[in-house]
Design a protein that fits this description.
The structure is a single chain. The protein is mainly alpha-helical and 70 residues long. It has one domain. Helix content is 64%, strand content 0%. It is built from 4 helices and no strands. The longest helix has 14 residues. It starts with a helix and ends with a helix.
């Protein structure tokens, strides 16, 4: 699945929230998690669900969403 640079950045922030860098343990993005997630989602046979995920990343990165959650 092709992600825009902004979508990759947003997904990276989400992944790093769940697996941040701790001591010598690298963060999720350093382990290539964004590429793995994009690859797995790209295998979903339902185009509607793939588009919905991309839209979710776009919304998550929007100013309106940021303002709505404070």
């Amino acid at each position: 699945m092709e992600l825009t640079e902004r979508q990759r950045h947003t997904l990276g922030l989400i992944c790093d929230t769940f697996l941040p860098e701790q001591g010598e343990q690298p963060r999720a993005t350093d382990l290539g998690t964004v590429d793995v997630v994009a690859e797995l989602l790209g295998r979903n046979p339902r185009a509607t669900e793939r588009r919905a995920f991309l839209r979710l990343l776009d919304i998550w990165d929007s100013r309106a969403f940021a303002l709505s959650i404070g």
